[in-house]
Amino acid sequence: MQVENKKLCTGCGACYNVCPVGAIIMQGDEFGFYKPTIDKEKCTNCGLCEKICPLDKFISNNKEPKAMSLVHKDDSVRLKCASGGAFSAFAIQIINNGGVVYGVVWNENIVAVHDRAETIEQLEKMYTSKYVQANTKDTFKYVKKDLESGKTVLFSGTPCQIAGLKAYLRKEYDNLITVDLVCHGTPSPLILEKYKQEFLKENNEENILNINFRSKKRGWGAFYTLIIQTKNKEYCIDGSKSTYLQAFGNLSLNTSCLDCIFNKIPRVADITIGDFWGVDEYDKSLNDKKGISIVLINNQKGQNLLKQIENICKLQEIPLEVVIKRNPNIYSSSKPHKYRVEFLNEVCVENKSLKSCVKRYNKVSLHIALYRLLPQFAKNFIKYKILKMEK
Fold first, then answer.
1. Domain assignments of the chain as residue spans, ordered by start
2. Three-state DSSP state, 331
3. How large is the angle between the packed helices 86-96 and 300-308, nearest 10 degrees?
């Protein structure tokens, strides 16, 4: 079998999980994105991988969602989360009911992977955003085993990962609840590795114990605070000055993220969660600077779980048009950076410095923006600077 649409492949892992002979492995491509590779000697040409691939085949049965704002009433829980604590509220309810939760954690090497939680302690490792493509590993198989044993399962991930799981299962399960994210796109794991290596070298550190891309030490808002914990120190970094988060702006995203068939309405999952960007424009009284979520209830299954958390959360229905105004990834893909391929090639293939490449390509973008704004007499100079940097 050939891997079809490899450039558009999201790396969801459905084909890897479904292969009956283990002929497929998920490994990084030239830019570090997880993609399937087929061992032709093992492959029996059964065609299962092609049959369950969600690309161009997945159809959501959901309708237009109901939008809510959500704030977890327990500030100690909300403080651990990226925004208002929506994921924690839903997930804790599932755990308390005897179910299991699948979400993304950092493994011992600070690599983002999907894992299984059946206790609150295990669950807390899934809190906060991991701004990188996560490896779903064998979790689809474990989800199926849990479902068929009668357990209630909550699976959280990006829209493409939810679509991959549903394609792998090939039927609806009443005891499965899916939660997807308002997804900007997934950066390359190799870019994160480069960032970690350069960080350790610059700070004379040996290893990283934890990364929190969305710390609330300076409050909740549009500018992120990045916390990197090592054996010797905790580093608190302004997100706008982090080369990794600067690249996250669109330089480091997967090709599939730039024309995503799953970032749209109707949504893929039962519930969609994200930050309530633009809350101050709607109602400043809702924003206490500790974090507030938006939640899209996409079907009756999502509505049923929402009712179960009403006592632990502050909920308010919000017009959908208000929510999507500042969250365009609810219904559309991120726009590609003009120099994304050049950037990825230099960092991942040519092994150039991440820091220097981010600085250079962001300067190109800045000069392009200035070129559009400045009067004619200044444009010749700006155009000269752009052409010089492109060489």
1. 66-187+251-330, 353-390
2. coil
3. 80
Q: How far apart are CA 317 and CA 391, in angstroms?
A: 52
Asked if residues 306 and 300 have their Cβ atoms less than 8 Å apart, the reply is no
Q: Return d(Cα 155, Cα 134) in angstroms, integer.
A: 14
- CB contact at 8 A, 82 and 129: yes
Cβ(271)–Cβ(65) below 8 Å: no
Amino acid at 267: R
Is pLDDT of 374 > 80? no
136-183 pLDDT tens trace: 999 999 999 999 999 999 999 999 999 999 999 999 999 999 999 999
Task: Pull the structure tokens for residue 26.
Answer: 């998920």
- Which of 106, 117, 181 has the alpha carbon at shortest distance from 154? 117
Q: End-to-end alpha-carbon separation of the chain, Å?
A: 41
The pair of structure tokens assigned to 48 is 């299962």
Which amino acid is it at 359? K
| CB 20, CB 1: distance < 8 Å | no
Q: Which two tokens stand for residue 28?
A: 């990084």
For Cα atoms 135, 138, 142, give the angle at the middle one, nearest 5 degrees.
130
Q: Are 354 and 247 in contact (CB under 8 A)?
A: yes
Question: What is 193-245 written as a DSSP string?
Answer: HHHHHHHHHHTT-S-EEEEEEEE-TT-SSSS-EEEEEESS-EEEEEGGG-HHH
- Alpha helices for 79-236 (secondary structure H): 86-96, 120-123, 139-148, 159-169, 189-202
pLDDT above 50 (res 306): yes
How many residues are present in the chain?
391
> What is the residue whose two structure tokens read 């979790």?
139
CATH code for residues 66-187+251-330: 3.40.640
Q: Chain centroid to CA 208: how far?
A: 21
pTM for the model stands at 0.91
Residue in the structure block whose two tokens are 């970032």:
263
| 119 has a pLDDT exceeding 90 | yes
Tell which residue, 24, 29, 1, 17, has the closest CA to residue 256: 29
Q: How is residue 141 written in tokens?
A: 């198989």
Q: Can you read off the two tokens belonging to residue 351?
A: 């092994």
Six-digit token pair at 337?
Answer: 């950076």
